[in-house]
Amino acid sequence: MDSKELPSILRDDNISEETNKLISSLPSHKDTGGLKLCKYQGCWYSYNTLQGVLNFQSGFHPQDTDIILASYPKSGATWLKALTVALLEKSKNRSTSDPHHPLQYDNPHGIVPCLEMDVYHESSSPHLDKFSATPRLNVKDTLVSWWLFGNAILKTEQTRSDLQSKFESFCNGTIYYGPFWEHLLSYWLRILEDPKHVLFMRRRELTCVRGLGALLSLGNLRSLEVKKTGKRNDVNHKDYGNKGEVGDSKNYLTTEMEKKIDMIIQEKLQGSGLKL
C-alpha cells in the first residue's frame, strides 16, 4: 500500500530531523502489513507514533486532576474510554438517555484522545486527568482483534497465512506497541508501588459496573450513529469496534496457537503475583 493511502497515525510524514536521527540508530523491522516499526525503550512503534511518544515525554507535566487511561491496543480501550466518560457524566447527574450526553454524539476516541497519536501532535500543553487502568479481553482475543483491526484499516483480506504471521509477531513481542505481557506487568507493578493513585481492573470486573449497562453495552455503542459514520486519524469509527466477546478467538486460532499463547503468558507473568 502506498504510504499516502495509510491512516495518518501510520504515516511517517511528520517526523523531526532529530527523531529521524534517533530512528536510524534503533532496531527496526516491518510488521506483517509492511508497516515500518522501530524499537524504543522496549516497545515497537511506527515512526509517526514514536514522534508523539517523544513529544509526550518531553512536554508532559502531570496535574493532580489528570486521569490517564492505559491499555494495550485492541484489548477493550474503546469500551474503557466510554465507561470513564459515562462515570464522569454520572457524577454530574447527567442521565445516559440525555441526548446531550457526550457518548450520544461523539466517538469515545474523540472524547478521550490518545496521548501519543492525538494530543501531542496538536498541543504542547494539554490538560489531562490522572487515572491508570487496563481493560483486557482474553489475551488471545486481543491478538485476533489486532489482526481484524489491521485488515480493516489497511483494507486487506483476512487470510490464514497473515493470521499466522501476526500470531508469530505477537508471540515474539515484535508486534506494534511491543509485548502484551510487558504492558500488563508495567500496570501491575505500578499499582503495587502506588495503590492510592492507580486502579488496575480486569475486563470481568469492568462488566460488573451497574446503572450504565444500556448506554455502554457493546451492541449499543456500535449502533450509535456516531459509530457508524465519521473518521478519526483517517480510520473509520466503525473499525475501532469488535465483537467484544471473551473467547471469540476460538473462531480463528487453532488449539496449538491458543496453548502456545497461554504458555508464554504464564511464563512471562511468573513470580509477579498477577494472575489472568
Automatic annotation (TrEMBL):
Keywords for this protein: Transferase
GO cellular component, one term: cytoplasm
Pfam families per UniProt: Sulfotransfer_1
GO MF term set: sulfotransferase activity
Sulfotransferase domain ranges (all copies): 64-119, 138-202, 216-273
InterPro entries, per database record: P-loop_NTPase, Sulfotransferase_dom
Main enzyme class: transferase
Gene Ontology terms describing biological process: sulfation
UniProt EC number: 2.8.2.-
Protein family: Belongs to the sulfotransferase 1 family.
Protein name: Sulfotransferase
Source organism (scientific name): Brassica napus (Rape)
